[in-house]
Amino acid sequence: MTNKVVVIGAGLAGSEAAWQIAKRGVAVVLKEMKPLKFSAAHKNPMFAELVCSNSLRSDDISASAVGVLHEELRRCDSLLMQAADKTKVPAGAALAVDREGFSAYVQDKIKNCPLIEVQTEEITSLPLDSENPVIVATGPLTAEPLSKDIERVVGNEGLHFFDAIAPVVYAESVDMSKAWRQSRWDKDASGQGDYINCPLSKEEYYEFVQDLLDAEKVEFTEWEKQTPYFDGCLPIEVMAERGKDTLAFGPMKPVGLYNPHKNGEKEFAVVQLRNDNASGTLLNMVGFQTKMKWSEQKRIFRKIKGLENAEFARLGSVHRNTFINSPDLLSDTLALKSYPHIRFAGQITGCEGYVESMAIGFLAGLFAAQEVLGKEYTLPPEATAMGSILRHVTKGNAEGLPFQPSNINFGLFPNPDIIPNVKRQPKGKAKKELQANKALSQIDLWSREIG
What we know:
The chain has 12 helices and 17 strands. By secondary structure, the chain is of the alpha+beta class. It folds into 2 domains: 291 residues, FAD/NAD(P)-binding domain; 148 residues, Beta Barrel (Elongation Factor Tu (Ef-tu), domain 3). Helix 1 packs parallel to helix 10.
């Protein structure tokens, strides 16, 4: 093995990874296909292109998990957060940037770093025989030749091309005086009920179906339209279009469920929620992937009994996305188990969002540099935002649920320690503040450790 790392892709994750490697005195070859070739969504020839929005979301560290992730990256000397702070524009509590200025800043830093060699070429296959450590950071729109080769290496169950995401609700926001725990026919290992059920009467169900049909939807882009839906991940509104009773015989079927709030009465339909993480702080709305606009999702789903005050850690979506089944394929340090010299970084790992891509790129670069330097791997503490998004990527959702990409949210953080002699433990904003404070205190120690 040589003392050089190859990074494929100069998007957000690849740029951050390359910088973190070089910062630690290790040489980098950064390979980028632009401007020879562009994906369907990319227009700017510069590195670290922000495609969808000029906002990196909330910068509030007291109430926003992504705000905590911003601050952690700042304290760990992230190049991309430095670029964001240098090029930010007024946007209230959000961190918005001048997109052209942001990319130009990152590209200038990388091209003027003596330890980073930039090569313009398209990589069409995984470098399985490389003598160098490799980081694949080609993003959610990885070009078709490389996507096909990744699929060849990891198997057709290991790579996904359509990202169908159901909404995720904070468990503490569900009204259990209206909802109840029960698995169909009481078939679950715990005997406690693996699902939370939110009931709908016949009138409420048909009103719900009409709301789905009338709701504003997010349209596919031209390049997404060529990718067909899988029957297993149809948006709920598409199912509703196939007939007003389709959902009642599909994800909302009430069979084997009896409402204890109504003396065991059977409901006309139910919405089921299941743990989305091991601690049970997040609940997945089973089968509720959707193309409805986010404002419409909140409006319509909060009409459901038990979800009137629901707080969403993530809203539903269906979009073209290339990502690997990371929990099965990657180690704790993002290395491909079958070819450990290859790491993956960014949205191709199943993290969602620009800032999350920066974080996973940062970590992939750190681990690659530690490998070359012969140092012991140093994982971020579990209580941090960086540790939480890494754990999601490498460990996945609650057992039994298929792996789905996710943004950072407080539901991915460990629960705060129990406060002794306090009957009512913190919830809501107070709980988030505890999680944020612990994360930032631990990231300070970790950042000194990694150098």
